[in-house]
Write a structure and sequence with these properties.
The protein is 51% helix and 0% strand. The protein has helices at residues 11-24, 28-42. The longest helix is centred in the middle third of the chain and has 15 residues, at 28-42. This is Putative transcriptional regulator.
Length: 57
């Protein structure tokens, strides 16, 4: 099964996302994944499969 996902966003959103990723020192995939998870959770969809280990401080 192909796990790739593509979404088209306008230039302004792309620029803001790029700036945010630079500030957070993370990649766009992580930010997009977290945003999608938040959107799904907002609508009552639970994600159980992709649990990542949390970093300990």
């Amino acid at each position: 099964m192909d796990k790739r996902f593509a979404a088209r966003i306008d230039g302004e959103r792309h620029h803001k996302l790029k700036v945010l990723c630079a500030q957070l020192k993370t990649d766009m995939s992580t930010v997009a994944r977290e945003a999608i998870d938040g959107f799904l959770a907002k609508h009552g969809v639970k994600i159980e499969g992709d649990k990542q280990e949390q970093k300990q401080p």
